Amino acid sequence: MTVFVTGGAGFIGSALARDLIEQANEDVVVIDKLTYAGSLENLSPVSNSPHYHFVQADICDREAIGDLFRKYNPSAIYHLAAESHVDRSIDGPAAFIETNLVGTFVMLDAALQHWRALEGGVKDDFRFLHVSTDEVYGELGPEGQFSETSPYDPNSPYSASKAGSDHLARAWHRTYGLPVLVTNCSNNYGPFQFPEKLLPVVILNALQGKELPVYGKGENIRDWLYVEDHAKALQLVVKKGRIGETYMIGGRAEQTNIAMVRAICRIMDKKFPDRAPHEDLIRFVTDRPGHDARYAVDCTKIENELGWTQSLDLETGLEKTVGWYLDNLDWVKAVAKDYKQERLGLEAKK
User: Fold this and answer.
1) In a domain? residue 273
2) pLDDT score, position 348
3) Is the pLDDT assigned to residue 74 strictly greater than 50?
4) From residue 317, how far is each of 26, 103, 129, 253, 277 by CA, in Å?
5) Which of 47, 175, 298, 339 gives 145 a disulfide partner, CB atoms 3.0 to 4.6 angstroms apart?
6) Is residue 290's pLDDT more than 80?
7) Backbone angles phi, psi at 254, to 5 degrees
8) Strand 254-256 and strand 221-226: pairing?
């Protein structure tokens, strides 16, 4: 099999690409524009594999994407390319509309033309997986979980653009018959996450003795999913999922942001006891505009139908994540060389 992974130089996409190459021995064509959040450093563990192919391309470029379908004749598409940071979407929504909506349309349209030209079993086996987020459903109260039938209610430019792309994917299945599947995941964490997100910010700031910024009172709740478990789930959906269906992927690990920060502080205390307590570095800062209070997903469907289970509990996953960042500071330096660590997402307050 030859598969496409769009956004494959990013955090989740690179975890998927590495696993497809190292464990599944599939030929993987990574398609990535290499914006600030995408780096070939994320693919260095598989860069010498004969199964690895990289193409720098913009998914909004119809001609380039069409050429790639003709050249590589893929049997499956893992579509992960997206602008994904909520704070950045508040300050600059145009890039999110362009990549997440227009880019998804281009990928679906090119995949449809490719699929229509296939024949027999090859056509029957083709799949297009659209990877999305639980943020499209808005926010939850103190009880309940999002499910595959939850109504859409996005609250940020990012989540609105992803909601639109989900609808496009479903429309291309219902209208044209393209064999599409959709997944919506909870908050990912783990190795290779660009250091603008909460957990790597806290780990790296704690290491340097810098303040640990926490939005509002840190009471916003997220369900935390280890990225390598997510990568396994995506492969199961492509191989065993029912065409036209949506699958929720979560970690069954709800925690407030402040609890996650304190958990990292405790791990750092053990590793650097002379600097303890790291909790003294916590600083509460102005909350994000429109910050959703709580997300949680019910992943019963993928567990029961496809047999997916997560391999790591949250405590073990956090230990591994902190250890990985401390052991890979050269990676941090390489990918974040132009990242100024400035606070984003306050434009709405002006």
Assistant:
1) no
2) 52
3) yes
4) 26, 32, 26, 11, 21
5) 298
6) no
7) -75, 135
8) antiparallel
Q: How far apart are CA 329 and CA 350, in angstroms?
A: 36
The domain that contains 128 carries what CATH number?
3.40.50.720
Residue 11 in tokens: 């955090």
152 is catalytic: no
List of residues 6+ apart from 258 with CB closer than 8 A: 214, 217, 218, 219, 282
Residue 101 sits in which domain range? 2-194+223-252+296-311
Residues 6 or more apart whose Cβ sits within 8 Å of residue 52: 17, 21, 28, 30, 43, 46
Could you say which of 19, 32, 83, 134 is catalytic? Answer: 134
Judge whether 215 counts as a catalytic residue.
no
Active site residue 36: no
Catalytic-labelled residue, pool 52, 78, 137, 158: 158
Q: Who contacts 152 (Cβ-Cβ below 8 Å, separation ≥6)?
A: 136, 137, 138, 163, 166, 167
Give a yes or no: residue 334 inside a domain. Answer: no
Partners of residue 114 on adjacent β-strands:
none
301/35 Cα distance (integer angstroms): 34
In a domain, 176, yes or no: yes
Helix 104-117 vs helix 157-176: angle between axes, to the nearest 10 degrees?
A: 20
d(CA 286, CA 216): 6
| 112-158 residue pLDDT tens | 999 999 999 999 999 999 999 999 999 999 999 999 999 999 999 99
**Whose CA is closest to 281, among 215, 217, 212, 214?**
212
CB atoms within 10 A of CB 46: 18
In a domain, 57, yes or no: yes
First to last CA, the chain: 51
Whether residue 339 is predicted with pLDDT greater than 70 in this model: the reply is no
Q: In Å, what is the CA distance from 23 to each residue of 29, 228, 317? A: 16, 12, 20
Count of structural domains, the chain: 1
Exactly one of 19, 58, 83, 135 is catalytic; which is it? 135
Tokens of 275: 């600097």
Beta bridge pairs of residue 127? 76
Query: How far is residue 181's CA from residue 200's CA, in Å, rounded to a whole number?
Result: 31
